[in-house]
Amino acid sequence: AGDNLVQTAAKADAFRTLVTAVKAAGLGKALSGKGPFTVLAPTNSAFAKLPAGTLETLLKPENKDKLIAVLTYHVVPGNVTAADVVKLDSAKTVNGESVTIMASDAGVKIDDANVIKADIAASNGVIHVIDAVILP
Q1: Cut 0.90: pTM above it
Q2: Residue 1: pLDDT band by 50, 70, 90 thresholds?
Q3: What whole-number distance in Å separates Cα of residue 70 and Cα of residue 95?
Q4: Angle at Cα 104 formed by Cα 99 and Cα 110, nearest 5°?
């Protein structure tokens, strides 16, 4: 069985900010559930690229709905592997909005983010690491 998406992310230092945000949004339980989900996981340095104060503002309890909207934009229902991603030009997220996918010889871009590592398997889905936070 192995670790679920949240447990897998929590084991990697690179996802410390993401895990904090997921917990603040109250999404830990959902993303630990049956799934499967495909998580586009921004690294700590991706979060650090946001304009100053953005993350701190999103993490405030009164902005929980905004935080949920941003985080669910990073989750696609189903188990979408790298092999599947390259055949798509968009994907509908849990947030309801779609991300744009561009595959080229240079790699895969999701909106303005580059996929820097693909196909980290979890018991209830797959994680693709991205180098920027994408906003709906």
Answers
A1: yes
A2: low
A3: 8
A4: 20
- Is 78:37 a contact under the CB 8 Å cutoff? yes
At residue 132, what are phi and psi to the nearest 5 degrees? -150, 155
DSSP SS3 for 61: helix
Cα dihedral across residues 114, 128, 36, 15: positive or negative: negative
Ramachandran angles phi, psi of 71, nearest 5°: -65, -40
Distance from C-alpha of 63 to C-alpha of 129, rounded to nearest angstrom? 25
How far is the C-alpha of 108 from the C-alpha of 59, rounded, in Å? 29
Reference 80, options 28, 26, 130, 121; nearest CA is: 121
Task: Find, among 15, 21, 121, the residue nearest to 73 by Cα.
Answer: 21
Distances (CA, A) of 51 to 37, 46, 58, 61: 28, 11, 12, 19
Taking every pair of C-alpha atoms in the chain, what is the biggest distance, in angstroms? 42
Of the pLDDT bands very low, low, confident and very high (cuts 50, 70, 90), residue 71 is very high
Query: Which residue pairs, CB below 8 angstroms and at least 24 apart, start in 20-26?
Result: 20/59, 21/47, 21/55, 21/58, 21/59, 21/67, 21/71, 22/71, 24/59, 24/64, 24/67, 25/64, 25/67, 25/68, 25/71, 26/64, 26/68
